[in-house]
Amino acid sequence: MDLSKVHKLLIIRLSSLGDILLSTPVIRALKNNYPGIQIDFLCKRGYRDVIINNPYVTNIFIFEKKGEKRKKLIENLLREEYDLIADLQNNFRSRTVCLKLPSAKIRFRKKNLLKFLLVKFKINRLKDAPQMPERYAGIFDNLLLDDKGLDLITENKSLLDTDEKYVGIAPGSRHFTKMWPKQNYIELGKLLNSEGYKVVVLGGRNDIDTCCDVSANVSMGLNFCNSNNILQTVADMKKCKAVICNDSGLMHAACAAGVPVLAFFGSTVKEFGFFPYKNKSKVLENEGLQCRPCTHIGRENCPLGHFKCMLELTPQSAFQELNHLLNN
To answer: How much of the chain is in helix, strand and coil states, percent to nearest 5?
Structure first.
């Protein structure tokens, strides 16, 4: 569809944190290339804050699963009379919304078959696949992204002292096979202490126990884990010299904060499109393992029982890579 003829656009990306952040370069490019376009966004309530301060988005609608709230949502969307709907989620829930709206629609292609071939048979047809923002942009005709990174704007103030040398550690992830072991984070924290850094532990509601254990076992570790207040977490990240994390939503949040990122990738690989985007970063991964990737989203256990993808990434090597990242 000719975007110059689109006056009102609805983007659907219901979840999750990283996926929504990776859509922000597309939102920016659309608005910068077509200033007259109104861009609205539909997401789940828990991710509203990711978009709330985005200057390129006019209205944010909250996805409702069913009942009167769903009916009211559809009525509000119908009232907008969109010229185009861009479904970046492309699942059952997003399609149920699209079916209720008469607007023209375009959808993100997930390449599930290619991911299946890579995970199950190690047939890699995704070797040259672009990162996710470029893939999102690809559903629009001739939309080119700029050289900037992800957008997440916060007006929150951090309680961290700007005169200190802070390094953020975000040890959590939704899936076990995407988490560098907690004890390794603790050992890395002690190495950081020895070089005069103060460790700030970051996370959300599901990371509380892990964050408490890490901060309690690192000298003067500050536990800034919260109840999924992403705007506060990003404000705290901005005070850090770097953020060390897993392949997680907070990795993308740190990229949006413009902070150097050191990330551990275990069961997942860059071909899936979720490496740090246009930000100073270093990814640590065990590239010699033939069993990687064993999943494209994460697993609750290592299918072979050895978990070498994470266990063979040592705190000492991570510390060396962090120093290289910060000094170059």
So the answer is: 40, 15, 45
Domain of residue 315, CATH code: 3.40.50.2000
Tell the residue number behind the tokens 């550690």, with chain if given: 169
Q: Give the pLDDT confidence of 124-178 residue by residue, as tens digits.
A: 999 999 999 999 999 999 999 999 999 999 999 999 987 899 999 999 999 999 9
| Among 217, 184, 186, 174, residue whose Cα is nearest residue 313 | 184
Q: Answer yes or no: do 236 and 120 share one domain.
A: no
Q: What is the DSSP string of 34-54?
A: -TT-EEEEEE-GGGHHHHTT-
Q: Are residues 111 and 196 in the same domain?
A: no
- Note whether 85 and 179 are same-domain residues: no
- What range defines the domain where residue 12 resides? 3-137
Which residues are CB-contacts of 197 (< 8 A; sequence separation ≥ 6)? 165, 166, 167, 241
